[in-house]
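Example record

The entry below shows one chain as it appears in the dataset: sequence first, then structure tokens.
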Amino acid sequence: MSGAPTLADLTTLRVGGPAERLVTATSTDELVDAVREVDDAEEPLLIVGGGSNLLVGDGPVPGTVVRVVTRGVTVESLDDCSGASVRVAAGEPWDDLVTRAVAEGWVGVEALSGIPGSTGATPIQNVGAYGQEVSSTVASVRVWDRAGQRVVTVANADCRFGYRSSAFKDTPFGIGGTGRYVVLDVLFQLRLGPMSEPIRYADLARGLGVDVGARVPLAAAREAVLEQRRRRGMVLDDADPDTWSAGSFFTNPVLPDTAFEQLQARVAERLGEDVSVPAYPAGPGRVKTSAAWLIERAGFARGHGLPGPASLSAKHTLALTNRGRARAADVVALAREVRDGVREAFGVTLVNEPVLVGCSL
């Protein structure tokens, strides 16, 4: 394995062992051919785009790693009535697309500025931030169906989008870290105009000096989001280990009403009757609460674990960071400590957002 490419070189957490075999796909045909070849050989497969949502173990990664660097942004239609229909290759860097959307007056993804990774990953996770989710602008997703050995176009209604989930995320196939569907490109439907979608996130509205629900110029919305993300260490910076992470490591828990009531009771017992757990509607009989709030109240402050090799971000407790010399085992140990600490304190088991390959919590 000496000299073999490592997943540490391909992921934003900068951890991960050597790849047994690495293939770089620069076109959709190359991507399909590479996946088909691996499946025909019945070998493990791992698809890597921007590597911003992966935690890969320290051992050798068996089989084939296919790195997706396909490019292309095609405007299929553009008019005042229906807006912009824009088809984007899976390997296109996400924030490059957002930058262009803001410049072109394509509305609907401006609050998703500064998110690392590739466009093809966004519908898999139903990426969201600051009151927007990518599902609101995805018209369809074109995928390679590994089981059916064919290209399939999946309409928005069939993507089964949910909170950080979709039909593409939890459909296993074969062996390795990749599921049944490999995203080839995404068709977005974006409104045209100079003003953003209504600002839904309170901190973002405060930063802009407007009320929640107001619209602001697209460029102003993007810059305000980037400022929020920079303050939280969520904009990648090669010079700042506090940004060497996979973004938010845990999803916000979505609980049945009864479980949320039990959580509130445990918080009252531990922290006092006057402490209220953050609560956001999440559909009939369900409540979403804040993972960061639970982590902090369980005793894990920003920077927990410093000087490292892995620690919570000094800016945001949801980010687990590599301080420059961490291995995957160090990140896993920290994640396990936080997860178990929250469960012991409040009876809620946090769920990791990044995909774990060759390691587990």
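Notes for this example: The radius of gyration is 21 Å. The longest strand covers residues 181-192.
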